[in-house]
Inverse folding.
């Protein structure tokens, strides 16, 4: 199965200034997301969210606040004909050094094996260097969404082992994935 791994905040929805989309008034979808996800699905990709959500369950970010927004997020996706094959959420803080926080691949290890993911046909879309490192750790090509908050770290741009392309929008990433899919299909 071919998969497009997707970051959530900053990729599918706007990133909040405080780093927590914990209220419905903070939930805003990025332009082109619904159309792009439908195109990927229609071209045979499974859609999988992999997201770091700093400190869910803490007093500053209660589970119920996250879940309320996540439920509305998923309902809105459903209204647009989009279902995710799976959603993986790391609730830990960076300093906890867990095995599931991106760029580590602990969240998806079993999924990769159980679902026989074709990594050579899969991709990652995200807005942070940790997303690109996650893609590199998986062995997939990453698409880095250029943004005002985060820059792609220089070592990632220069490492020949990291397959990354900077794009201006979610729609651009989808277009490039589908173009590569078409090219791969013609050479097969």
């Amino acid at each position: 199965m071919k998969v497009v791994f997707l970051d959530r905040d900053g990729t599918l929805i706007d990133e909040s200034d405080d780093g927590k989309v914990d209220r419905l008034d903070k939930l805003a979808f990025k332009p082109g997301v619904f159309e792009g996800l439908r195109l990927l699905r229609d071209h045979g990709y499974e859609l999988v969210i992999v997201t770091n959500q700093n400190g869910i369950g803490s007093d500053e970010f209660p589970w119920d606040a996250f879940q309320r927004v996540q439920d509305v997020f998923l309902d809105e996706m459903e209204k647009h004909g989009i279902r995710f094959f799976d959603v993986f959420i790391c609730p830990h803080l960076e300093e906890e050094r867990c095995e599931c926080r991106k760029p580590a691949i602990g969240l998806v290890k079993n999924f990769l094996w159980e679902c026989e993911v074709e990594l050579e046909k899969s991709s990652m879309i995200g807005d942070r260097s940790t997303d690109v490192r996650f893609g590199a750790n998986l062995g997939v090509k990453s698409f880095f969404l250029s943004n005002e908050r985060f820059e792609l770290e220089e070592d990632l741009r220069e490492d020949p082992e990291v397959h990354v392309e900077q794009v201006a929008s979610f729609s651009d990433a989808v277009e490039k994935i589908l173009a590569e899919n078409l090219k791969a299909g013609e050479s097969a």
Q: What stands out?
A: The chain is about 35% helix and 15% strand. The mean pLDDT is 93. Residues 170-187 form the longest helix (18 residues). The two ends are 16 Å apart (CA to CA).
